[in-house]
Each structure stands twice: as C-alpha cells, then as structure tokens.
Write a structure and sequence with these properties.
heterodimer, A: 129 residues, mainly alpha, Cytochrome Bc1 Complex, Chain D, domain 2, two-stranded antiparallel ribbon, 3% strand, B: 151 residues, 5 helices, globular
Chain lengths: 129, 151
C-alpha cells in the first residue's frame, strides 16, 4: 500500500482517537472514569446470574436473557427487555439507571452494587445483541 | 354495635364511591406518582388507604412489602405531599399496611364474591394484582360491571 498523505492522516487520526474512544454509552463512560478500571462482559454475566441472600437474581425478573421481556417475580408486571439492542431506551437516563441499581442490587445482592459491578453489568447487557 | 355497623357502612360507601365502584369521576393521579408507583404494580388509588397509612408507606419505601422501592428524596417528598393532600382521613391503617387486608377489601372480595381457588390461578396470582380482574384498574375504574375473572 502506498503511504499517501490520506493514508497517513487516517492512521494518525485513529491512533490519536482510539485510546479515547468512548463506548457508545456516556453512563458507562462515567463509571469507567470514576474508578479508572476495566469492565468485562463476562464478569457482568456472572453477576447477572448470581443468586443473593433473598433467593433472587437479576434473572428472577429479567429472565436468563437481557433481550427477553421479563416479569416481576411477585406482581407479574411485564418488564420490557433490558438490552439496548432490543430496547433502545434502556441505559439512557443516569437517574433512572442509578435508581434501579440502588433498588435491585439491594434486593438481589442484599447490598449496594460497587461501581465495578455496575460497569461490568452494563458492559454485559450492552453486549447482548 | 349499631354505631360500629354505621361506621363500617360509611367507610364502605366512602371508599366505594370514591373508588368508582358505582360511577363518578376518577381523581387524576399526580403524574409522577402514577409513573413511579406503577413500576412494579398498578398505581393504587389514593383512597385505598387512609392518609396515615400512606404516610407510613412513603416513609419506608426502602422496605416496601419485602423489596427496595426507594426514590430520590425530591420524588419521595413530592409524592408524599400529594398523597397527604389527596388521601382521606377515613378508616384505620390496615394490618401489615396492606390494602388487601383492609376491612372494605375483605368485604368486597370475600368467599361469597370470589372463591378461594381463584387467587391461586396463574393469571391472577395475588390479591394485590387488581388489573387481573379489574381490567381498567390502571385507569382507576373498578366498576363492578366491568370485572372479568380470568380462567
């Protein structure tokens, strides 16, 4: 390949921007910036399936797949899918995300989720296509 | 005894008429209350609990009938203030703070009206699941002529 000016500029742009490339989600970026760590979908998936002290896991209401519609374990209320790939409104409002993390981590894990856990969880759910 | 009967009857009438059981206007819900309080179940009507009971509910959202239903301080305050203004000071705080254990609820859903096995049906599951039979419950319409008990 000829090293034209266009090619060099393109490569240079990528080299500069890729390390700062945001995930497509500003809320996830916020968590990343907060703890300056890395999140993995694998850790998120494990968390999703963890059964806590109240005999509840995320799957108890959201089913085994974040792409499926779920149901409240007690009231039967229909729950829209969690994965943005199916439900683009998910994970767009930070107040809503924080509200549900607070409630559901308390219910499912018996305690608040750490920022690491929130980031892993989001990374997993955002990866489900 | 007559006084108790009269009181009981007046509670039934108060709740009955304001709950649109026999027709009449529906109190519009505070939009934030409707939005937040229908996250997991239908937004229950303000007249289903006496004011004092709502106060307790709003003060213990993190321990809401076995779950954490907490809201931001601002939202909690806004909804609590509206309930304080809108709910009636009628009737007693029910046992376990449950609408379904209220005197009037038990009278309207007793075994002479609803057979015991009905509550076990998967389509209904619980007495707190109003809309399973009161199809327009989410709109505040509990008119008894519109009840459809699913199989």
């Amino acid at each position: 390949m000829k090293l034209t000016l266009t090619t060099i500029s393109a490569v240079a742009t990528l080299a500069v921007t890729l390390p700062f490339a945001a995930s497509a989600n500003p809320i996830l970026d916020g968590y990343k910036a907060e703890i300056k760590g890395t999140f993995t979908a694998a850790a998120g998936e494990k968390l999703y399936k963890t059964v806590g002290p109240n005999q509840l896991s995320c799957s108890s209401c959201h089913t085994d797949s974040p792409k499926s519609a779920g149901k409240h374990a007690k009231t039967n209320k229909a729950i829209d899918p969690l994965a943005p790939s199916v439900n683009p409104k998910r994970f767009t409002d930070v107040a809503t995300v924080e509200k549900w993390f607070k409630r559901n981590c308390n219910d499912a894990l018996g305690r608040a989720c750490t920022t690491q856990e929130k980031g892993d969880f989001m990374t997993y759910v955002l990866s489900v296509k | 005894m007559q006084v108790i009967k009269l009181f009981a009857f007046s509670v039934l009438v108060a709740v009955g008429t304001t709950a649109l059981a026999d027709g009449g206007a529906v109190t519009p819900l505070l939009p934030k209350m409707e939005q937040e309080c229908s996250s997991c179940h239908i937004a229950y009507r303000p007249n289903f609990l006496p004011r004092a009971a709502w106060k307790q509910v709003m003060a213990t959202l993190n321990k809401h009938y076995g779950t954490d239903a907490s809201l931001s301080d601002a939202d909690t305050a806004e909804i609590a203030a509206w309930l304080e203004k809108t709910a009636l000071d009628v009737g007693e705080v029910p046992p376990n703070l449950r609408i379904t254990e209220s005197f009037w609820f038990k009278r309207k859903h007793g075994t002479n009206h609803v057979k015991a096995e009905v509550w076990q049906r998967a389509s209904i599951k619980s007495r707190s699941n109003c809309q399973a039979c009161h199809v327009d419950a989410a709109k505040g319409d509990f008119n008894e002529h519109k009840i459809r008990i699913p199989g």
